[in-house]
Amino acid sequence: MKKMPLIFCWILFTACGNTPYPQGKILYENFCVSCHMSDGTGLKSLIPTLVKADYLLENPLKTACIIRYGLKDTIMVNGNIYTQEMAAIPVLSDFEIANIMNYIHSSWGNDMPFVTLAQVKEALDSCTIE
Ligand code: HEC
Is the pLDDT of residue 41 over 90? Predict the structure, then answer.
């Protein structure tokens, strides 16, 4: 019984520590950072930003489709035009995609809604990107 509070603190710390969505952060670092950068700001006219990006804010669930199927389009993000292709990352599971999205939604000053696994699955079932 005496050890209970300690264990409880550890669980709380892991769940509510400085980095929300630790798995999302690790996956972001492995799969996204080389282009979108560790601060999410992308690369000038080549890679769009994920920080307070109007494109992201207008359709947050589209990110699931972009990760799974890639994006080859001409898009406008915060007033800048992007034409480079983003390759699909098919190895990531629905759950991993949800974690990455929640990491992005709560990082770098972004304050976007939490997405559930069910929402991500639903979005992935109706992707129009090819
Ligand atoms: C090889 C470089 C590269 C990698 C790796 C990459 N992206 Fe992208 N991403 C791009 C490019 C380029 C675009 C613009 C695509 C276009 O114009 O059609 C883009 C567009 C986006 C967009 C839509 C535009 C915006 O800024 O809101 C999102 C969201 C996004 N990427 C998220 C991710 C996430 C999450 C990962 C990791 C799972 C990732 N990207 C990995 C290059 C990359």
Answer: yes
